[in-house]
Amino acid sequence: MNKEVIVVGAGLAGSEAAWQLAQRGLQVRLIEMKPEKMTPAHHSPDFAELVCSNSLRGDRLENAVGLLKEELRRMGSLILACADATRVEAGGCLAVDRQGFARLVTERIRSHPNITVEAREVTELPAGPVILATGPLTSEPLSEAIAAYFGGAGYLNFFDAAAPLVSAESIDMNAAWFASRYDRGTPDYVNCALDETQYKAFVRELAAAEEAPVHGFEDSRVFEGCMPVEVMARRGEDTLRFGPMKPVGLPDPKTGKEPYAVVQLRKDNAAGTVYNLVGFQTHLKFPEQKRVFSMIPALARAEFLRYGVMHRNTFLDSPRLLDRSYADRRNPMVAFAGQMTGVEGYVESTASGYLAAVCMAARILGEPLPDFPAETAIGALGRYISDESVTQFQPMNVNFGLLPPLDRRVKGKANKNLALAQRALEALPLHREKEELE
């Protein structure tokens, strides 16, 4: 069998997949259309570009995504190694220097002796073995080719949004303070307070602000985990106060009391010169973003380094099409990875790339196929996207609800989650030993 594998797309999933295949001695041809062709959401020619937030979310084992990250670390993930090496402080989250992270991933990929990189757009589905990891911004020609491959009815669409970035020096710290919620970790977030009058005026203007035209956009099709703030504002006056503007656990040091609402800013680069508005994904017109977000007192004179953008996300009806190794049920030499499979989030995309690659490598090398237990986060995600009983398939972040329940009662949510995480990590080495024995 051909021991060269084509990987299409050098985002998080494609970069991880290429690395894992190469580390197992296979020759990899990694095809990435940047910089020959860029999408509206891309700004850098580097691989693994983070087009939305610079945060890989929670890093504690009590969080499902924290567990998934620890599993990937233990299994030699390239993406997690590069993220840890370019980490910026963000309380209990793993956030990275956006440019430094992408640059490091690119350097590691390009220097691997088993990986050849080609800069060109793929418009037809390559013959296997191939892993397609072209992400939520898959170009129209390739989208059409994949749809045709699956008989024309295998795609669904939704939209995703990125938050604005502001310069640190333009934030008015007289109206803001550094803190992490409930004082967990180091005080890495800039918290911008609004009183009741300011908040209600802000929500009113946000709900009425003019949006940039996005063909086919409807509120009902917005993925709940990445909903634009203007959509939230239209859903009720207090929606934002129970979402990204929640003040709980963030008392103002000047008064000792929690403000009516808070906008949090998180460091976007290691130097701390750029901050992003946490949870403020938007597709308002740029002048409207400047006008409305400047109503936040601490951002009254903010310098916007990048405005929020809205872009199309495309994903497969995976339960009907893919198995739990992210491979085509009909032809396992054609596999998919990343958000196009219906996993949602940077870490989840990385995990799908890892699993698709190690299973593809096993098939090519004639080795036993890895079958990660359902008790692990990476195994649970693979089972979710391939669960044929799911009739209304939607993108999913990793969560403890995907894992089998414990065989004993544990009091308290945090303790229960920690027990689930410990069980998962215990299953990983046992699973790997079982592979070696087979």
In short:
The chain is α/β, with parallel strands linked by helices. Helix content is 32%, strand content 17%.
Helix-strand makeup class:
alpha/beta
Mean pLDDT: 89
- Shape, principal axes of CA atoms: globular
User: How many separate domains?
Assistant: 2
CATH superfamily of the largest domain: FAD/NAD(P)-binding domain
Q: Which strand order spans the largest sheet, edge to edge or round the barrel? A: 10-11-12-13-9-14
Strand percentage: 15-25%
Largest sheet composition: 6 strands, antiparallel
Separation of the first and last Cα atoms: 22 Å
Number of helices: 12
CATH architecture descriptor name of the largest domain: 3-Layer(bba) Sandwich
Write down the CATH topology of the largest domain: FAD/NAD(P)-binding domain
Give the % helix: 25-40%
